[in-house]
Task: structure prediction
Amino acid sequence: MKLFTPSLICLALCGSLTQSNAQALDSPSPAQPADAPTEVKLSDIYKSVVRIEVATQTPSYRTPWNSGKFSGGTGTGFLIGKNTFLTNAHVVSNARRVMITMHGSARKHPARVLHIAHDCDLAILQVEDFSPFEDLSYLSIGKVPQLESQVRVIGYPVGGDRISVTRGVVSRIDFRSYAHTRSDQHLVVQIDAAINPGNSGGPVLQEGNVVGVAFQGLTSADNTGYMIPTPVINRFLTDIKDGQYDKYVELGFSRFQLFNPAMRKAYNLKQDDPGILVARIYKDGPIDGTLEEGDILTEIDGKLIDSSGSVKIDGERVNMNEIVERKFAGDTVSLKFIRNGKEQTAEITLKYFPAAEMYAVQYGKRPKYTIQGGLVFQPLSRNLYSELALSNPRVRRLFTKYISEDIFQEREDILILTNVLDDPINSYISSFTGSAIESINGIEIKNIEQLHELLNPEEMPEFFVIKCEGNNRPLILPGKDLKSNNERILQRYGVEQPSYLGK
Amino acid sequence: MNSIFKIILIVCLSTQAFAQKVIPPEDSLPLIKISSTSQDYNIGQPWEKNPTSNRRGLGVLIGKNQILTTAEIAANATYIELETVNGNVAMPAKTIAIDYEANLALLSTTDPAHQKELAELKPVLIAASAKLNDPVQVYQIEDSGKTLVTNGVVRGVDIVSSFVAGHYFLTYEIKASMQSASHSFTIPIIKNGKLLGILTSYNSKDQILDVTAPEIIQSFIDDAKDGEYTGFPSLGIGISRTDDPHFRSWLKLDDSLGGLYVKQVKRNSAAQEAGIIEGDVLTSIDGNKLDRKGYYQSETYGLLYWSHLVRGIKKVGETLNLELLRDGEVIKKEVTLSRQQDGLIPSHMYGKAPRYLIKGGFVFQELTKAYLQAYGDKWKTRAPIDLLDVLNHPEDYEKGRERIVILSRTIPTEATLGYERISGAIINKVNGKNIADIPSLIEAFNTPAENGLHTIELDNVLKTLYLDAETAKKVEADFLKQGLPNLSRVK
Result:
């Protein structure tokens, strides 16, 4: 599930999620101690858990024309099929070189990222030459472990070079945020084994089967680790079967729990009537045009939705998102809802909601920008917002309301004047830094390509009159001599390309 | 904002004995010690006041039973006591005129029995304007009652905001090395035996005193004479400098001209009445040419910021002759100055009680700057972005509104079950009626729908809330039983 607002203040969308007990969905076998006799020998398992060494190049949104920062890190991965290594997306994000090392071997094998799913923090790697790995066994994906059952975390965390094994107990199964994009929520299993840097991407095992991928911890608590459970892993593996990753799908609405008696009365609901309120429908989302705000959603795929937004599956109450979570782009979901006292049904085709990318941290992408007269313009994104700590109130408002007030419908990009490369031609302009651009010479700005074209016309106008959001004093940039001034500015500040518009 | 930091008590000052002398009481000025007890309202729970705080400062007698001091010492005062310098007589006092914007107040004792003590003192006269390097004396009172005088020098003149942010007045910067004394708040500054000004802030590092200028004090006293205080006038424009050469050539501003770009004209302002519009360039006021940064050449003080021509020299009802440039053409406007009415968000809440309404556990308030500031030091980033937007761009919200009514918090009750997380949302309508302020909100709640439900429309992901009128009444009755003094305040 994607968040449609950047923080957690919105009402129901990320509101009180009741305990989504995913065990029932997978009807697991009774818990057994982790060290019970298993069919797969431990030494074999160790061999299939590999160390991943990554060299990264992370773009800088502050200096988008530069190459970015070169650094690196290590993580863990494991073999799940022929030349198929599973790991976390964050282990191999922004990777320029990936090397895989087997347990008990010093040799580094060059590898590449075959699939990467940032929204669920999973990736598939391939080595260039699989022959050294031919004898290794494939780890099989198991079920969701039961609460209190023991699990074993294997990986290459900090503190040494060789493989490390820790044990823990499953302490919570919940819907939670994935830190990698900061805007996705999926099922998460919490264990009390510490997960440390380097553990990421490693398998969490029970009875010789993979029950999760270790992926994040908590800085504020000790002995708390989180793993990506098998429903999320299986969904990813199914999604990429056709050769590409199509991302999670959404229904595209915010809901409100109908606890208040007056609210129930207003919508003619009796004490025990099911349903949640459709509070906000996002434009162009899957249910836009079919459902309306004020509808009471009562059933999803034939399952009754209670007033807290949960559905019952195999006797367990789980968050209704779980139904959508396991579907793919193009799948349908059937909804039953009440409008003006009348029950109606609809078949909704699920799809990805691209505007929500505004709130997701982007990886592996070169930041877009365009420079004119020393003025650097960049489209607003989560990366830009955080890295530049943008504080202009109108910019914050555009960011916060990008989806909830349908701003994305009008403006694909919100262009920000992020920097002024100081030069005599722009010496009084720096106070505009951090503003959002509303219009140029009276034309409203909708995306970076349009802004770039407007600022680079065949024939330069006398002035560019640039209106910034929330500021009635326009920014004036003279068109005359801009071309020669640009050369001087770009050379002085070491900017090779005056723009990068993506491709 | 004030450029130098403000202090309440002066501490850690080096004593420079040669600059100070103790003079006998009979030669001293008609100084009065002032103690005030002040209390402001609890922003989160507007039905009650915060714990009290005390301030001690000085006042100076300027007329019969008229003691001049700063507004700061009298702001939100629940009790003011005057005391003679020797400490022999204490008497209760009241505020007869107060100007929070200019930071000035006039007090008088309410105790007729003690008025004769005051009558024995000879009121001080207000000095004429000072010049740079004029010597002045700073008067302080020691605990013993001795008068402590420090010599100082006028070092500069500027337009400064001393108490309420955004209100700028002529202020002297005086260099003097003061020491800590018991009544160091609002200290009088004397030149040739006359009152030059009142200290509003002291920067102990630079040893610079900010002192309200005599012109401002004289205007204040003149205004208060008839017993009905009006206040200083405003033009009501937001401006921007014209020092950017590209901006100037776009505005077709000749190099010989300075001027200020009008980027905002406030609702119901003198400027709006006179037909000034956004985009005009203000080049001259009453024949005083403005430079590119908005300064003019004052006969008395040299370069001075333009706002003194409005607030420092003129009174409400008087006119200003403005010269403006509109689309490259010179135009002239005569403006009759007025008091700027409070906008959607009042510039301050001193001396005013916040209006509120409690309905079934919902607490409704009118948005104030103090409410936003209650989000802490980083309120500019932590307060709800919708509410900050009103503060920054009130013009976008003015239609049909006097104030912005917000659902400031939700107290968990039977009636607000399921709504607990809603707070900081702007209220648009209640029971179908537009909400302009708290009185109109109270009015709107008088008529729930036939099904017994109140309908509340707000700026939120959830656009409409319903509240059961009967349950709300029951909850409100409980609130009163539990010690809430009132369910609403309309003033």
Q: What stands out?
A: Residues 469-481 of chain B form the longest helix (13 residues). Residues 356-489 of chain B form a domain with the N-terminal domain of MutM-like DNA repair proteins fold (CATH 3.20.190.20). Chain B touches chain A at residues 238, 240, 243-247, 249-250, 261, 263-264, 278, 380-381, 385-386, 388-389, 392-393, 415-419, 421-422, 451-455, 460-463, 465-468, 471 (CB under 8 Å).
